[in-house]
Amino acid sequence: MSTVAVIDYGMGNLHSVAKALEHVADGQQVIVTHDPARIRAADRVVLPGVGAIRDCMAEMARQGVIDVIHEVVREKPFLGVCVGMQALMDFSAENGGTPCLGILPGRVEYFGENLGAADGERLKVPHMGWNQVYQERAHPLWNGIAQDARFYFVHSYYVRPADAALTAASTEYGVRFTAAVVRDNVFAVQFHPEKSQHAGLALYANFLRWDGQTP
Predict the structure, then answer these.
(1) Is 96 exposed, middle or buried (0-12, 13-18, 19+ CB in 10 A)?
(2) Helix and strand tally (H, E) in the chain?
(3) Distance of alpha carbon 178 from its chain centroid, rounded?
(4) Could you tell me the domains of the chain?
(5) Quick count: other Cβ atoms within 10 Å of Cβ 35?
(6) Rounded CA gap, 45 and 30, in Å?
(7) CA–CA gap between residue 147 and residue 87 (Å, rounded)
(8) Comparing C-alpha atoms, which of 174, 86, 189, 195 is closest to residue 124?
(9) Is residue 211 within 8 Å of 77, Cβ to Cβ?
(10) DSSP type of residue 141
(11) Between β-strands 91-92 and 98-99, what pairing exists: parallel, antiparallel or unpaired?
(12) What is the pLDDT along the chain (215 residues), one digit of tens a residue?
């Protein structure tokens, strides 16, 4: 039986992610685990996350999953979600500056205190709620998902990749920011698919069918 491991490091929306994956799984087993052996044995891996990046990184270290993340991210279809996407970068400005996993080149930046829309309206931080996601490149995880489909966001910090070619999708909220990144067998999103109804479930279903190949 094919398996997908949701990495449990004590932070985030682990069980809501797992339940959403189970909802679209077609004969696949979804496991929530911090056991390196079970993560290595899985066919696909998901790194979720919510909250402050410093706490997330500390818990990854405490649970002993950092080394196995670096291992499986090189060889298996891998999906990062929300802070799980931010953690893949080199560095985050959050908490006065926090080193991240350094798997993808880039930084995580704060939206700012005086974030404004094009019409002059002041925007609230965190960016919370539904927003359009513009697909910057074709990818199997977008299959069946309309251009500019709306997904659910909750975040005060956003990813700025060092290489624009990493951006798989973007969203507008005061600034144009990267909403999804891709490289080889790694795909990661800033929004929460598990809170994004049909489009989010479609993305999870696409991930469970993805062989890790990027067009």
Answers:
(1) exposed
(2) 6, 14
(3) 11
(4) 3-209 (3.40.50.880)
(5) 16
(6) 10
(7) 26
(8) 174
(9) yes
(10) G
(11) antiparallel
(12) 899 999 999 877 788 999 999 999 989 999 999 999 999 999 999 999 888 999 999 999 999 999 999 999 999 999 999 999 999 999 999 999 999 999 999 999 999 877 766 666 788 999 999 999 999 999 999 999 999 999 999 999 999 999 999 999 999 999 999 999 999 999 999 999 999 999 999 999 999 999 999 88
Give the residue numbers marked as catalytic: 82, 192, 194
Q: CA distances (Å), 125 to each of 4, 11, 113, in order?
A: 33, 22, 8
What is d(CA 131, CA 133) in angstroms, rounded to the nearest whole number? 7
Residue 13: CA count within 13 A, CB half-sphere:
19
